[in-house]
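Consider a protein example.
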Amino acid sequence: MEENIIYYRTSTCNIKYHVVWSVKHRHKILDKEVEMYLNELVQQIANEKGFIIQFFECVDSDYCNCFITAPPKLSITMIVKYLKGITGRKLLEQFPEIRDRLWHGELWNHSYYCETIGAVSEENIKQYIEHQSKSY
């Protein structure tokens, strides 16, 4: 677990997210060429904005899975905004033919799915808190 901890100036943390987002109306436009370019974009955005992409994959040509490590100063809302906003614009610039297959030219669905990935189970956290309150 020690290798997962990231040290910042004012905090030490291990914050990980699994994020999933899809193409608007689930159009199957994420072929291998688009996926390769999208993977490069996602890595570039993460480097510029200060978070880490542990794993990225397009699935069934219509949605993306992303495993992210992030500092506490970046909200997941902001991270997803960066990823979907920048990739959407740049993908449509690089592959203009995609726009013809989309409804109103919008690439990504407005919603996304996110869950935190924990190093400690919910039960362990409850036991820790209960133990701490009994110690004092």
